[in-house]
Write a structure and sequence with these properties.
heterodimer, A: about 270 residues, MetI-like fold, 2 domains, 14 helices, B: mainly alpha, flat
Chain lengths: ~270, ~290
């Protein structure tokens, strides 16, 4: 028993060492962003705090516009995804149509070959559609989410058939049934999917970088990249402030709703 | 429901998603192959069929091989490191350690940050001389190092950053798996007087196997899919020492505008993902039941 206690202490120490090491980069960015530039590598506990860096960063680039763009983008993608994914998952879960199995395997292909790797062709497609440098263009390849279809199909399949029957006896059409029975029962799955979708598209970078070339369409990630590489000397405090601004909504959301976040990721992960 | 109405309704419900999926996944995948057999159209010169010429160019292109090698090394080091760390993290966070809430938060936080933001923060560490890494190594008596600016350190520097970013994400899946193990297992092990290491090796580890395979597949996909940090930190340099395959595709397609060649390169990427899918189908399907 003695040695178990010792093991325990050793393990706790190791876990904490890793924990501190893991939080260090972020803690460091926060330190730099909230202090005047002369304290950026001097860690004095009583150094004066300031919001100055955030104010300067906010005015040094059109971050307000970038925020708007990212918010619109995420909302648009999620909105369309929810509708398309719900309809498709319902079809796969409850209708025995011709070619269902083949169609489902074709949907699953997108889990492996994500739009992220088809940038060359998808860009040509956008060009033909005249959607280069539009928010719709950034979102379009992601709107039919195989992941979402998969996740919801699993959930819809667990809805007992008796509920179906009962609703049909009441005179519900199949779309009403979807809306009144299936969607409410799948609520936690919708939340899980919504969180993963928003954090994916809030953070997405390469595709928006390719598609956009104006302030009016650029999302935050691309704006941040341009901002940190513009000629302004290397003002770390400014860059850290801008970086935190960009990540803040997800970060704050995560800290506030940690449990739901983690639960959602777990739910989305066990498929 | 009659057969006919099931067919009509089923397909109508599926239609909107199917159209978009086809337009941005299946058609482009096939079109990539078609375009890889052609030259890049330029100005008034349309694309010309050249058979496998693009692939011949590729075989003789040292940058392609460099990118493949880099991608291989990158996967070889980041994947095992982040999977092992993820497992450790999950085991720790799953116990009643002091400060468990803080630890879980600390491990998971890098996952929520955009990769591009992570790159910005780490750039700061890797700056020669006054970056944090150099400040630390100076204490140990080393001179300043240009971590991101020299061939033999750049890939390693990016790998460390990637492990930091990914481990917490994979931890979540292990945590989920651990929480579903019946508590009677550890009680039985305690009764038998099994050592903790033995218990882990013979009971926990095998039970986590499906999760490990799932995490591995995702880790491999990510090592091909994510190049944001390359764009932000090194642009593949110095001298292509940090170019990954997708980054090279991005450069060929959108800097040199050689879409024909970029298509051939994309085919390599697609082939590897297809292999992975087949591997998953034959190995994973037997162990993980997710129907």
């Amino acid at each position: 028993m003695e040695s178990r206690g010792f093991d325990r202490v050793l393990e706790t120490c190791a876990a904490w060492l890793l924990g501190v090491l893991w939080i260090l980069p972020l803690a460091f960015a926060i330190w730099t962003a909230f202090h005047p530039a002369e304290y950026q590598a001097r860690f004095e506990p009583l150094a004066p705090l300031t919001l100055e860096n955030f104010v300067r960063a906010w005015h040094a680039a059109p971050f307000a516009r970038y925020f708007l763009n990212t918010t619109l983008l995420c909302a648009m993608i999620l909105g369309v995804q929810l509708v398309l994914v719900t309809l498709a998952a319902y079809a796969f879960a409850r209708f025995e149509f011709f070619g269902r199995e083949v169609a489902f395997s074709l949907v699953l292909v997108q889990l492996m070959i994500m739009p992220d790797v088809l940038i060359v062709e998808n860009y040509q497609t956008l060009r033909k559609l005249g959607l280069v440098d539009t928010l719709l263009g950034i979102g379009l390849p992601y709107m039919a989410s195989a992941f979402g279809i998969f996740l919801l199909r699993q959930t819809f399949k667990t809805v007992p058939r008796e509920l179906d029957e009962a609703a049909r006896v009441e005179g519900c059409s199949f779309l009403m049934m979807l809306w009144k029975v299936y969607v409410p029962l799948a609520r936690p799955v919708y939340i899980a999917f919504g969180l993963t979708s928003v954090s994916y598209h809030w953070n997405n970078f390469l595709w928006p970088l390719i598609v956009t070339n104006s302030v009016e369409t650029r999302p935050l990630t691309v704006g941040l990249q341009i901002f940190s590489h513009a000629d302004q000397g290397i003002d770390w405090a400014l860059i850290c402030a801008a970086t935190l601004l960009t990540s803040a909504p997800l970060l704050v959301g995560f800290l506030l709703f940690q449990r739901q976040f983690v639960q959602s990721f777990i739910r989305a992960g066990i498929r | 429901m009659t057969r006919l109405s099931a067919n009509v309704h089923g397909w109508l419900l599926l239609l909107p998603a199917a159209v978009l999926l086809a337009a941005f996944t299946h058609v482009p995948a096939v079109a990539t192959f078609w375009h890889s057999l052609h030259t890049t159209p330029k100005g008034n010169r349309p694309a010309r069929f050249v058979g496998l010429r693009q692939y011949e160019t590729m075989i003789e292109d040292p940058v392609f091989w460099q990118a493949m090698w880099n991608n291989f090394l990158y996967a070889l080091f980041t994947i095992p490191a982040s999977v092992v760390l993820a497992m450790l993290m999950a085991l720790w966070v799953n116990q009643r350690l002091a400060g468990r809430g803080f630890l879980r938060m600390s491990y998971f936080v890098p996952t929520v940050l955009p990769l591009i933001a992570v790159a910005n923060i780490w750039l700061f560490f890797y700056v020669p001389d006054y970056g944090l890494v150099d400040v630390f190594t100076r204490v140990l008596g080393f001179g300043p190092t240009n971590w991101l600016g020299q061939r033999d350190t750049v890939l390693g520097a990016l790998m460390v950053m990637t492990v930091w970013k990914e481990a917490g994400f994979f931890m979540i899946f292990y945590l989920a798996a651990l929480q579903q193990l019946p508590p009677s297992l550890s009680e039985a092990a305690a009764l038998e007087g099994a050592s903790r290491w033995y218990f882990f090796r013979r009971v926990i580890f095998p039970l986590l196997m499906p999760t490990t395979l799932f995490v591995l597949v995702n880790a491999i996909i990510n090592s091909f899919r994510l190049v944001d940090h390359i764009v932000a930190l090194t642009k593949g340099g110095p001298d292509n020492a940090s170019a990954l395959l997708l980054f090279y595709i991005f450069e060929v397609a959108f800097k040199f505008w050689d879409t024909g060649y970029a298509s051939a390169l994309t085919m390599v990427l697609l082939a590897m993902l297809a292999l992975l899918a087949l591997g998953q189908y034959f190995f994973l399907e037997k162990r993980v039941h997710y129907r």
